[in-house]
Amino acid sequence: MDNNSILLLSSDPNEPFRRAFQAVGHGYEIISKQESRNNGAVYFRRGIIESILGKRRPVLGFGIVGPPECCIITGYDEDGDVLTGWSFFQNFPEFNAGIEFEPSGYFRKRGWFKDAHSLLIIGDKQEGPPRGELYRGILNWALEVARTPVVNGRSSGIAAYQAWAEQLLRDEDFPVEDRDVLRERHMVHDDAVGMVAEARWYASLFLPQIARHEPGMAEDLLAAASCYAAEHDLMWRIWGLVGGIGREEPKVMKLADPSVRRKIVSVIIQARDKDVEAADHIARALAK
Fold this sequence. Notes:
This protein is of the alpha+beta class. The chain folds into 2 domains: 26-125, no CATH class; 131-286, no CATH class. It has helices spanning 15-24, 40-55, 131-147, 157-168, 179-213, 218-241, 249-256, 258-286, and strands spanning 26-32, 59-63, 70-77, 82-86, 100-101, 107-110, 116-125, 150-151, 154-155. The strands form 2 sheets. Strands 1-7-2-3-4-6-5 form a 7-stranded antiparallel β-sheet, sandwiched between helices. Strands 8-9 form a two-stranded antiparallel sheet. β3 and β4 form a beta hairpin. The protein starts with 14 loop residues before the first helix and ends with a helix. The mean pLDDT is 94.
């Protein structure tokens, strides 16, 4: 169920953060939770207070509210015993037990350390690489991610499309009589559809920005952007095959239908081919 976690994008879970903060020209520090550290809560609290009070910077927290995904910590109260901020999961009933809310709508949570996974402290402004060097680094890493078939024991990049398709063809893994299993299968599948749709759409917008800065690469980058935009549209076609976006029972049951899944598999393979084509265009752009 955590297939789409950014922490699994690379064999080094910090790699996405390193690249992101390099791109915006800031240092950063990750404070991981260590169960053996007796003063772990004090350690976390100190990092939050020093950032917010001392440097007037919010903190990114993994966990705190909901699963170990990122939230923004904007303030604290009672010497850090209470945190305030915003999480995508703060209004989900299964995740907001005991949470109060500020007038602004931000969460207010006491006893937060038990649900904390790690903190990302935003560092000082620093000089980043020249824009052209930065863009080439991004494109090279995009190509590496796309063409690396296995990361942390899981199918990754272009190879993940085939694994996704093959899983949907395993009829025995979609037992109509077990709704709990079906809901879980649908959630994992739906997460994948949403992630591909969103990420490829943003890629289709970002590559033209690079093309404007690097005109020698423009033709190939715009061709890659077109492939990613097409992938985004293919994901909407997959949603349409189960009745649209959402995780209501009728959509779950649609995915249980072998004939529907086989139609979805056909679309996934089309998306995979578009991803291969996009990677080829990026490789040609980098060769210039």
